[in-house]
Amino acid sequence: MTYLLSLLDKSPIEPGQDSRGALQSTVRLAVRAEQLGYHRFWVAEHHNTTNLASSAPEALIAYLLARTSAIRVGSGGVMLQHYSAYKVAETFNLLASLAPGRVDLGVGKAPGGFPLSTRALQVAVDPARKPDFADQLSDLNTYLAADPNHDVAQATPFPPVAPERFLLGASVESAELAARKGWELVFAGHLNGDPENLRKTFDAYERATGGKRPILALAAFAAESEEEARERVGDLRIVKVFLPNGQSVNVGNEEQAAEFARQSGVTDYRVEEKVPSVLHGTASHIRKELDELHRRYGVKEFILDTPALTAAERLNSIELLAKERLSLVA
């Protein structure tokens, strides 16, 4: 079975470690991923989060491009609501000019942080003039087009090869929006693994694009034995906090849920602890799971989110998966 494997890393800060150590671990993981034949290496965007070091993926992408030579490097993703589409286009056109044919622009709709950081990021934004997400995608299409005939500011420099564009989402609405704007869809199965929602979203994207299938993002952890993988993943938890206005967000623990509510200015909130959906086991077991998803949904590429375990465990996991080959055809 032929499908590509790619990686997403969030630069988790281990207990007793600082942000420099976490980012160095991400760099080592990217360099090794290239050696092992992974197709893409993406980094995330999280703000005001003390246990994750990647707050500015575009800066980290530039460093990773300089430390590698072939693997595609990108964002998973830029939290577009905070930024000018023009500035995002300039940044990624510059990155693509530095490393033509290797840069991915992935964007997401979520804030990627707590309310105080969202307000700080958007302090100069006039809410009445703020474009919606769909309009921002249209603006990005215009700025990335490198078309001098457009009567708009040009997002220079124009790269030899434009960055590839990906919308991160997990809904039929996201599928239809990505198709309408001409963006690749990455279904965020590591955040919403509901099989029925996955099927509906895949079908909607296929209908709207005339046959294309989304990329599927999943959390995955391989260990030497089923027991070891089960034990390590069994300790992972996420907490979902529900606010009175209908907003809900995933955080790491109940303390973070309380802090999110405090920053939102509410005291009446509800939390729900969940076990995250993580493919885990031996590399052989994970391969069988991916083979089945490939067969059932026609997935041609998986982006594997490495869970927030130790750097050594994350590195060992991608090593084991590569040894199993897992159709690393890049």
From TrEMBL:
Any single GO CC term annotated in Swiss-Prot or TrEMBL for this entry: cytosol
Gene3D superfamilies of this UniProt entry?
A: Luciferase-like domain
List all membrane-crossing ranges.
none
Keywords, A to Z, come to: Monooxygenase, Oxidoreductase, Plasmid
Q: Name one GO molecular function term.
A: oxidoreductase activity, acting on paired donors, with incorporation or reduction of molecular oxygen
The domain of life for this entry's organism is Bacteria
Q: Which SUPFAM superfamilies match?
A: Bacterial luciferase-like
Domain Luciferase-like positions = 14-295
Instruction: Spell out the family assignment given in the record's similarity comment.
Output: To bacterial alkanal monooxygenase alpha and beta chains.
* Protein name as annotated: Luciferase-like monooxygenase protein
- Organism (species): Rhizobium gallicum bv. gallicum R602sp
Q: Give the classification, highest ranks.
A: Bacteria, Pseudomonadati, Pseudomonadota, Alphaproteobacteria, Hyphomicrobiales
